[in-house]
Amino acid sequence: MNFFDALNAHAAWKQRLCRHLDDPAGHPISATAAGRDDQCSLGRWLSEHAEESADLEELRQAHAALHREVEAVVRAAEEDADAAHALLEARFVPASARLQRLLRRHALEGLRAAG
After folding, report:
1. How many C-beta atoms surround the C-beta of residue 45 within 10 A?
2. pLDDT by residue (tens digit) across 70-81?
3. Cα–Cα distance between 47 and 75 in angstroms, integer?
4. What is the CATH number of the domain that holds 78?
5. Rg, the chain, Cα only
6. Domain count within the chain
7. How far is the CA of 46 from the CAs of 19, 30, 71, 110, in angstroms?
8. Residue 60's domain spans which residues?
9. Is 0.85 surpassed by the pTM of this model?
10. C or N: which end of the chain has fewer Cβ atoms within 10 Å?
């Protein structure tokens, strides 16, 4: 697993969400699809390897939380864009920061192990 690629892909979610909130028709996101943490390469990899260590389980949980927050923001946007923006800042941003922190840690550990 290339954790740097996963970091970049998941860091892009905030931009995607902001574009969606500003122009839902022009930048559609399916809440159901976005909420699935098993559809991206990181999610598939984690579902196969998370039981290998507590660190990977922590990463799996943070990844799942991020996807739940993406879904929550998109669903909130269907009713009230202002509420969705508030949710983005209050819940998505902290979930994203946690996942990014864990992904950076795993990426650096991988680099150290490679020598």
Report:
1. 18
2. 999 999 999 999
3. 25
4. 1.20.120
5. 15
6. 1
7. 28, 22, 19, 15
8. 3-114
9. yes
10. C
